Amino acid sequence: MSSVSSNMKGFYRQKKNTITNKSSNKPPIHDAALSPSTTAHADEYNENETMLRQFDMNMAYGPCVGMSRKERLERAQKLGLNPPIEIKKLLENEKVQSQSLWDGSI
């Protein structure tokens, strides 16, 4: 029986992992603080668009998928959710993007 087990060990050889302590001089692939998506789109919108994006992300005024910002604002007013007056002024007076932040991504 010992001859069978010795043959099995030879047939199924074990490869042991070797530990190497080589230090790498490569720089990190990316910096999490300055991701490309953050820096690439930083100049594309102004302070008004920032306020509207905050409105889009605030779920207190209901979901925003499938409707424009103005439609969402009007629905929130009808439901008595008291959306900010500044948002209404921006949507009526300024030239801002009518679609929400989530439009087309879901």
From TrEMBL:
<dbReference type="InterPro" id="IPR007218">
    <property type="entry name" value="DNA_pol_delta_4"/>
</dbReference>
<dbReference type="GO" id="GO:0003887">
    <property type="term" value="F:DNA-directed DNA polymerase activity"/>
</dbReference>
<dbReference type="Pfam" id="PF04081">
    <property type="entry name" value="DNA_pol_delta_4"/>
</dbReference>
<dbReference type="GO" id="GO:0006261">
    <property type="term" value="P:DNA-templated DNA replication"/>
</dbReference>
<protein>
    <submittedName>
        <fullName>Putative DNA polymerase delta, subunit 4</fullName>
    </submittedName>
</protein>
<dbReference type="GO" id="GO:0043625">
    <property type="term" value="C:delta DNA polymerase complex"/>
</dbReference>
<dbReference type="GO" id="GO:0000731">
    <property type="term" value="P:DNA synthesis involved in DNA repair"/>
</dbReference>
<feature type="region of interest" description="Disordered">
    <location>
        <begin position="1"/>
        <end position="47"/>
    </location>
</feature>
<feature type="compositionally biased region" description="Low complexity">
    <location>
        <begin position="17"/>
        <end position="26"/>
    </location>
</feature>
